């Protein structure tokens, strides 16, 4: 898989919060941000798959949803 570079301009207070969260997990701030983006992307794709399954089985009004860490 090819890698690309993403440059962000982040407020100093936000950067400090990100750095603290990353340090608690023993990670660099860059790794923490990348893993957060990957996790959010997975959650979004997972939820889309659940909704597609509900439509396939005709459960458009299903009340229960798998949580799997999805907010």
TrEMBL record:
InterPro entries found in the cross-reference section: Ribbon_hlx_hlx (IPR010985)
Protein name (database record): Ribbon-helix-helix protein, CopG family
Superkingdom: Bacteria
């Amino acid at each position: 898989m090819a890698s690309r570079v993403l440059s962000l301009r982040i407020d100093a207070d936000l950067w400090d919060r990100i750095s603290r969260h990353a340090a608690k997990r023993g990670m660099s701030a860059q790794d923490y941000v990348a893993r957060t983006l990957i996790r959010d992307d997975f959650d979004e794709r997972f939820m889309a798959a659940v909704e597609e399954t509900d439509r396939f089985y005709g459960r458009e009004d299903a009340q229960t949803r798998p949580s799997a860490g999805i907010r």
